[in-house]
Amino acid sequence: MERHEIEIFLTLAEELHFGRTAERAGVSQSRVSQTLAKLERRIGVKLFERNSRNVALTAIGEQLRAGIEPAHRRIQEEVAKATAAGRGVTGMLRVGFSGAFTGDLILQVADVFSARHPGTELQIQQVQISDPYGPLRAGDVDLQVTELPIDEPDLTVGPVLVSQTRALLMPSAHSFARHASVSLEDLAEMTLLTVVSENVPAHWVEYHAPRQTPTGRPIPQGQAIVYWEDVLSLVLAGKGVCPVSAAGARYYVRPGLTVVPFRDAPPIEYALVWPSARETARVRAFVQISREFVESRGGSSAVIDTI
Hints:
By secondary structure, the protein is of the alpha/beta class. It is built from ten helices and twelve strands. The strands form four sheets. A five-stranded mixed sheet has the order 4-3-5-12-6. A three-stranded antiparallel sheet has the order 10-7-11. It has a two-stranded antiparallel ribbon with strand order 1-2. The longest helix is centred in the N-terminal third of the chain and has 29 residues, at 59-87. The two termini are 37 Å apart.
């Protein structure tokens, strides 16, 4: 069997659908049918039972797949290892994330990265909001996905992986919790949890936890956040409200908490960032695979809904 025949056969055995097989293999549906017919003539038996509604492997087809699939996978792994070694994509890569849903995204990207670059080892860890760039600069992580804006001359900002509607996490008993949406001006009537740390840039704090509304009204400032895990407890205790992404409705809400979207605030965006002086082939490969993964899931505004 030639390589393209093996790949089409194994893909069809997995998909059991000629159209999806053609799409994955990058060929026409008629080419898939022709390749299968050629294989069946050569072997002398049907490999698939098919009609207008269903496609299924025959017993001989199952036997053939069981025989060649492990060998094909092993060949792919060895080719990937050789390619990665030639490009310098080997060794340890440490990846940071700032929130639960970006962590889930990075874990899925990591699976793709490890399959494509089996000569690498990945370590994934959370980066705390009180020191968003410290682990990067200390060399504890090689790159991370974190909230924009980022205006740091020693850091390179990569592609935006996630773009989410900005929302407000508040106690369910709060008077605004019954509203369909809130305005930035409404913050003047609430206590806003903030971030106070010498390691957090002032422009970042002002973007996510402003001290005044767009018309200049002061926003009451509440307790400073050190860890994201503290936010849930503080909001639940009625100590303040906190801006979150709309994905927070899935990840952060528990009994007694409500997420209400803003109707007039820009989205919260999360991008990859890494030290410019320590950009490596591993970093570039992870960035590229992350970009491809997000694009395959409908883009930065849709990817979180697919994981």
